[in-house]
Amino acid sequence: MKNNTKTNNTVATVQHCYDLAPNSNVNQEVLKFNWKLCNHTKQFAHCTTFKIENNKEYFTKHGLLLNGFGKEVICKQFAAIIEGMFQHTKDIPIFMNWDTEEIQNKDMERNNYQC
Prior knowledge:
Elements: E1 9-12, H1 25-42, E2 47-50, H2 68-86, H3 100-114
């Protein structure tokens, strides 16, 4: 990621294994890895973390593959991330409201001192 600063990167998190117990070592390591991955990609402006929700409704009965509904939801989320990459944000300048009378008075005072 450090070398690819001119490329937009999208990184997906690792999925929870539903065929194992929630407190299994594999699932604990998945949580740790996802946490480290999110923290690592935060420091790069050109990197986006794609967090796949751990909703059991998105997966098949055995819990290893996405079902049709899950694929549709993930594709919509991914499309929203890609669309956000192409939107250009403009920096809005901050305008200061100066009191024009004060400026004119100071200019007149300066002119009087110069004589």
